[in-house]
Amino acid sequence: MSVVTIGLDLAKTVFQVHGVDEAGVTILRRKLARAEIMSFFTKQPACIVGMEACSSAHHWARMLVEIGHTVRLIPPQYVKPYVKRNKTDAADAEAICEATTKPNMRFVPIKTKQQQSILALHRVRSMLVRQRTTTINALRGLLGEYGLIAGKGVRQLATLSQRLSTADETTVPLEAREALQCLFRHIDALTEKLGGMEARIVAWHKSSPESQRLASAPGVGPIKATAIVAAVGDGTQFRSSQLF
């Protein structure tokens, strides 16, 4: 009997494969090094390959689809109930294989390279926003120790910077001034990078009819519209799609 469904547990270096025949009987258990993955699946007859929708899953899905396999990506939380014993790579691969065969299972659409490119822009933008917020909060706390305060918001940073520059050395010692100015420069650099990310996102939005249609809805701008299009594609499986 030939393998009709394979559960593939992804990893950085050593992957686990679990295959069953048409009757659901296990006929394949194997570990594969990363370099062996494509040669192994190239030799396999076309079959259904299930994977958890985690990091690198969309990359491997595209690769396997190119050589004729049908790939099903499953949200990790839907695989967990099928793990029958202590969590191991072999148990995970078996659970993925079983979950893949369930008729009511929800699958994650395979993202294109273009979708993941836009998601990368959004992830970097979110990271820059978090870093800038953290730096601003630290800066406000340090300035407050010298009695320099201002209202909330990024726009108030100019007021804080001016107050620091006009404060004499008896108010803010030289060592503290240098440290605080370093944070101001860091915030400026993060803001510049953030602007670059947003400009790239808006440029892609202008070239995407799907994103422009979404942005026509009240309360939806280019940032939100591009994130939705990149995450869910045509939206046919909206509830199952994830920002992986």
Automatic annotation (TrEMBL):
Taxonomic superkingdom: Bacteria
Record's signal peptide: none
Domain Transposase IS110-like N-terminal residues, every copy: 6-146
GO BP annotation list: DNA transposition
Any Pfam family hit: Transposase_20
InterPro entries the record matches: Transp_IS110-like_N (IPR002525), Transpos_IS110 (IPR047650), Transposase_20 (IPR003346)
Ranges where the Transposase IS116/IS110/IS902 C-terminal domain occurs: 212-242
One annotated GO molecular function: DNA binding
Protein name per Swiss-Prot or TrEMBL: Transposase IS110
Organism per entry: Novosphingobium barchaimii LL02
